[in-house]
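TA notes. Do not distribute before section.
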Amino acid sequence: MDRFEEMRVFVRIAERQSFTRASDDLQIPRATVTNLMKRMEQRLGARLLERTTRTVRLTHDGEAYYRRCVRLIADMEEAEGSFSNLAPKGLLRVNLQGTLARHFVVPALPAFLARYPEIELTIGEDDRLVDLVREGIDCVLRAGNLQDSSMVGRRVAQLPQVTVASPAYLAKYGEPADPAALSMHRAVNYVSSATGKPVPLEFRIDGRDSAMVLPSAVSVTGAELYAGSALAGLGIVQVPQYRVAGELAAGRLKVILADFPPPPMPVSVLYPQNRQLSSRVRVFAQWLRDIFEAAGGAARGGV
């Protein structure tokens, strides 16, 4: 195993804080990982890792060596990626927001894998805050504004949103003529996993953005529950239009306050701030932008 491969193993152990998880990720025996670290520490004359029964932590020397390894590996990958005849290859671990994955990403995956046959994808579905480094994830796809300052976002789409309610709700509370009338209404509040607080409804009023949190009998933390609660007549919601297109066409939901549209929802690929994009993440992010543009969720912002 050459020095760069040794560095990859060390970096994976440091990020996963586990010899076992690192060996599983890299698909090499745990004994090989253990022996490699012993040889590396002996060669460098420094202890890089502090081992306990539960976890593995970097020593002071290990922190310094880890930062250098990350930079060297990124530089090497960038150098190799500069040659157009070297196709991206290797394992790419991604975590996708569920509704985006099911509606846009998964149906188009055969084309991505046909274009990049040497990339192996591992996909998780989630909408929570993810510790990319600790969990060994290369990037995540998320909707909404960036909350975690430890991650860098690359915009791949902006999805039009609508304010909707069910006919049953509107029969009970009436249809508001403008946002000022919402004081007499209820929303289904979507609680952000990042802040633990309800996400306000947003409207464009006289050329200015306005946000408000309405009273609510129901608060939810999942996208499916959010739309489902509106269908059940529990309150007003704001959602990307693609998610309720069928319900709108069937009359199960109705667009309200169309003259006061909410801002589009940004969709971004996020990755750790201290990491240079690998060629695998770069082509995946560009491909995501392409599929959203093809679907009509035009991206505004470069990759």
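Switch to the second chain here.
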Amino acid sequence: MIIGLTGGIGSGKSTVAEAFRQLGIETVDADQASRAVVEPGMPALAAISAQFGSQIIQADGGLDRAALRQLIFTDPAQKLWLESLLHPLIRDWIIEQLKAATSAYVILESPLLFETDQHQLVHKTVLVDLPEALQIERACARDGNQADQIQRIIDAQMPREEKLSRADIVLDNSAPLDTLAARVTAVHQTLLSLPL
């Protein structure tokens, strides 16, 4: 069984994914897929450089994600171009990793699970949720970003209310971190009890 795990920036989905790994569940990270398909030497990186210019390539030949993020979040057409290039490549990488998993179920961790139609790859979805103000606070503390930049990222994603309505299971992550393991274990037990 494949479980989709999603949540916005700063929601704690990576921490939740780690808690599932501690329970012996394999995870496939869509962010890792998005990095893998644009590694130096990959055709996608060359296409991105041709589209956006060499200023988005770092001295080591890697992609300057921060520079690219600034460009696409202010230009919807450029964002769409990038998504149309990367999403099929990311999907193929994810499918390959999901097929290799051997745990009781496998988790596809994806911040854009619903937006990219990756939810079509999964049997059930788990949304890591918290109020937007706390989401911004945590993302700023973690990444050193400005609140307005985090807000733009949130605004570019599917609205929280829509994610809540589409999720099969909602894991509230507004409580203190020391209670997270118990909440993840409860979701884990629920998932184990589902018919295949």
